[in-house]
Automatic annotation (TrEMBL), chains A, B:
Residues 4-170 form the MoaB/Mog domain. It comes from Neobacillus vireti LMG 21834. The lineage of its organism: Bacteria, Bacillati, Bacillota, Bacilli, Bacillales. PANTHER family: NICOTINAMIDE-NUCLEOTIDE AMIDOHYDROLASE PNCC (PTHR13939), NMN AMIDOHYDROLASE-LIKE PROTEIN YFAY (PTHR13939:SF0). Belongs to the CinA family. Pfam families: CinA, CinA_KH, MoCF_biosynth. InterPro entries: CinA, CinA-like_C, CinA_C, CinA_KH, Competence-induced_CinA, MoaB/Mog-like_dom_sf, MoaB/Mog_dom. This is Putative competence-damage inducible protein. The gene is cinA. CDD domains: cinA. NCBIfam families: cinA_nterm, molyb_syn, PncC_domain, PRK00549.1.
């Protein structure tokens, strides 16, 4: 089957936002074995939307709409589709109830135009919105499947993963099962990894191997098709083994797991708690750690020591260290990691100090980063790395390197035993 | 004039990359007074690209292509357009020379298929590529303007700014200037805001008023067209005044400024420093604050007090408070804010405590949030809010509400003086 994604919203045509929904849906449709041939973006204009629907019907079996399900008068996706298909919009009591509940929960006053969000295409399957108000819809008619999804990614993405995707795979007739697995690497560049495994990639057609780089990480997506799901999985295992013989040392995890989730797992497994002293990263490590539910079992808290006062008075870094070596130094990173672990009574202390830019600091160039890792009962290590890119990129990569170094340290100290 | 943007590349349809080029071009075309009615994405497939061109010609005057100008065999944008228009591809000696120079500069060996990049549509105006090899083209024929741009943003963006945009404005007869301004609101829902200003929106055609919601914020984009730019700005001022008479209390800033940037400005203006005690938000407030370069003038550091131990031992919250009221309580938020300000020697202390989920805490439901604000020399306030959504959404909104409450507090205490 093939699909087309139509994003509705003038804010996209004005360049106010970028169409990340098309990317998200394309990735997951590929995983379902559904080919995407077109993305279309059209504004909040019924006539142009109607025209776009007509074009899509002429060339695509599945038509997925995002956006235009909101409460305001320029939200007109379902109204336009209803008119185009000659269908009625009917009140969905379940959706209405959950919208009313949403307002009760958030102590806000429901306005009349919020009721409009509970109107759905007659005869459509409703996709519940667990993170917002507008319900999604799937309607199969006239040889096409129409799926309507809300525009905000934080509503659309979980809705598609939980309800939309499954609804499509149940409708797509193919008896081939599509199984895919993402291998996640860190500490090796995309070009280097591709060179290592190029011959394997080129020799493969099923499973396919697709490299994708982003944010210092490199991933390989393996996708196998076979009527027997177990055989498809075995096919993935075989290719993965081949790949790991070449670059296995850089593999840190699978699918959507992040370095921080992997680190949290490793700490839990060893019954270790971690704390952080963040100068360069200003709380980024701790906020990403606590974004993982259940982080409280490995993390009690930490300190953002942006200034030297806080490094000295809260984390007891020696004044001499700051005067002699500066805050961006191996010595400071070491004291921050060790003192944070002691003062916050954690098994592991990690510290981040460096220069995020735009200006250099203490005569050290932008991108200079020291990461201290103090693990109870083993010698403290300090890694120096040099990063490039924007302020955000440097901070983000520093956190990833910190996780990577600590993970390596935990695994090695375990192997040593 | 109106335009359509056609991005060519299978990597977009596979979701490997997101179409940021369409956003960039849309923003700048709006600035040139050119309306964008459609974005289309099509793969590296000549037949589907031909079909997309035909659709575009039927509805758009200007057709801008990005991507598919590379040296490899699946780069076929100009070849397909040439065949579609019955034009020849001719070698452009200037482009060829600059490609040869490019290889000399980067000490790389030029391959035969790089010569192919110097082939251009006969009769087209060449747009030099100062950051890569593939030249861009503009061709005016049959009542349409065709513009071909390379795919990589670091080549496309400077090419459009320097050569492509000017080429279009010289061709488009319009002498109208387009001026737009974004009003940013917080603390009012999209539906509620639109109900307030609906009549103004409907009465307006120039300037136009477009609402956009996201992440608890609502924005209104005002866009005015007039040959005299100063008059266009005055038109915006008039509409803004009307809008602010209704909902001005919720306006916090303009254009791309964030609540945190606005807060940083307000603190700087008053020579105040801020610290944070983050339980619920786990460092998110501090990491977003330090993501702003120059934050160090208002922020020295703070504490992530995820566990009660850290609340007690680092931030000196009374054991009795935690036992009697719990960590998710008005009393705890108050002590956290006040003690953080005292212990970290800051003028302002802000605290975040609450239940991010997925599970309830201390018998308090997910979404319960207390934000404490302790400003030197004025009574500490604690705001209780109830949020819904994912763990991330709750944490993100809590930070925004914290900024909003603190901003309000600073402005009011100033007005009080």
């Amino acid at each position: 089957m093939n699909a087309e994604i139509i994003a509705v919203g003038s804010e996209l045509l004005l360049g106010q936002i970028v169409n990340t929904n098309a990317r998200f849906l394309s990735q997951h449709l590929a995983g379902l074995g559904i080919d995407v041939y077109y993305h279309t973006v059209v504004g909040d204009n019924p006539d142009r939307l109607k025209a776009a629907i007509a074009h899509a019907e002429a060339r695509s079996e599945i038509i997925i709409f995002t956006g235009g399900l909101g409460p305001t008068k320029d939200d007109l996706t379902k109204e336009t589709i209803a008119r185009h298909l000659g269908k009625e919009l009917v009140m969905d009591e379940t959706a209405l109830a959950s919208i009313e509940l949403y307002f009760k929960r958030t102590n806000r006053v429901m306005t009349e135009n919020n009721r409009k969000q509970a109107l759905v295409l007659e005869g459509s399957q409703i996709l519940a919105n667990d993170h917002g108000m507008a319900p999604g819809m799937v309607l199969e008619t006239g040889g096409h499947i129409y799926m309507l999804l809300p525009g905000p990614p934080k509503e659309m993405e979980p809705m598609f993963l939980q309800y939309g995707g499954p609804a499509l795979s149940s409708k797509s007739g193919s008896n081939e099962k599509i199984v895919s697995r993402v291998l996640r690497f860190f500490g090796i560049g995309e070009a280097a990894l591709e060179t290592e495994v190029m011959d394997i990639i080129e020799a493969q057609s099923n499973p396919t191997i697709a490299p994708l780089a982003g944010d210092g990480e490199v991933t390989l997506r393996l996708t196998a098709k076979h009527p027997d799901e177990n055989i498809a999985h075995t096919m993935l295992d075989d290719v993965e083994k081949k790949i790991n013989q070449r670059v296995g040392e850089f593999l840190y995890g699978y699918d959507n797991i992040s370095l921080l989730q992997e680190l949290t797992k490793a700490l839990k497994k060893r019954n270790l708690t971690v704390t952080a002293a963040e100068s360069l990263t200003g709380g980024l490590f701790q906020q990403e750690l606590t974004a993982i539910s259940g982080a409280s079992s490995v993390f009690k808290g930490g300190v953002v020591c942006y200034s030297n006062e806080v490094k000295q008075h809260i984390l007891q870094v020696n004044q001499e260290t700051l005067e002699k070596h500066g805050a961006v130094s191996e010595q400071c990173a070491r004291e921050l990691a060790e003192n944070a672990a002691r003062i916050l009574a954690a098994d592991v202390g990690i510290s981040f100090t460096g220069v995020a830019g735009p200006d250099e600091l203490e005569g050290k160039p932008v991108g200079t980063v020291y990461i201290g890792i103090a693990v109870k009962k083993s010698p403290t290590i300090v890694e120096k790395i040099t990063l490039s890119g924007t302020r955000d990129a440097i901070r983000n990569r520093a956190v990833k390197f910190g996780c990577y170094f600590l993970l390596k340290n935990l695994k090695e100290s375990q192997n040593a035993k």
